Amino acid sequence: MTTLEPFQLNNTRKAKQEIVFFNRVPKVGSQTLMELLRRLSIRNEYGFHQDRVQRVETIRLSPEDQAALSALISSYEPPAVYIKHVCFTNVSNFGLPEPIYINLVRDPIERVISWYYYVRAPWYYVERKLAFPDIPLPDPKWLKKDFEQCVLSGDRECKYLTGEIREGIGDHRRQSMFFCGHHAECLPFNTDGALERAKLAVEQHYAVLPPYPLGEDEINRYNPINKNSFKPPVSEDVKDIVRRNFTKEIEFYEFCKQRLHKQYVALKLPEKP
Q1: Which of 85, 172, 182, 205 is catalytic?
Q2: Alpha-carbon distances of 158 from 152, 154, 211, 271, 272, rounded to whole Å
Q3: Is residue 273, in this structure, part of any structural domain at all?
Q4: 1 in any annotated domain
Q5: How large a percentage of the chain has pLDDT more than 70?
Q6: Could you list the residue range(s) of the whole structural domain that residue 197 is in?
Q7: Any signal peptide, and if so, which residues (predicted)?
């Protein structure tokens, strides 16, 4: 029987600079973790840096922009954290030292429902209008569109077609894209090529834990950010319909959970009474 050892599963040891790169997936609790990291940066005296709010958020970057992002990350004085919504960017490909990559994942069906209602929430457009006053408001019919009806009616927005490619603002239907990277193979929705690239990035680059651990006291007394009270419940029947087209996303999520379990077992932590 193979013995699991923490060092075999912990990619933190591969890091060549004490900079945490949190390329955060939307709607997985990343805003809450970001705020916790900000607070801990004060207590633990490390640099906290995040990307500015953008008019158009692009998660896939050209090679030139990947190089510029890698240089920016490496320019910060360590120890530090840098946070941005962006696909996995291999900093070492540009001749720069490897940072510590961290991220979060969430059940893909719950996440896509959360995203659907997040971009329709009133406070979301208030924030967008304050930041960019000239942005037009969306069609009220689109804002009021119900997720269940969107799925059941075969609405284009809620079909989630295998092999489909979406560009523009960014493909937020799936979290695997944030691990797959910027390669063209990552673009088609729910495909084997994108799935395998995402798994490989997790195995080779993502850490067990950041070197600035979150204390239980901070977690227990801090409420989630961006919790959407406007999100109605969605039936399991509708969720099952969506699951049929999210097979690779579900496989990726289960892969991440299994890897985390292996890491936990390897640590050989004593059981709590």
Answers
A1: 85
A2: 9, 7, 39, 43, 43
A3: no
A4: no
A5: 84
A6: 6-267
A7: none
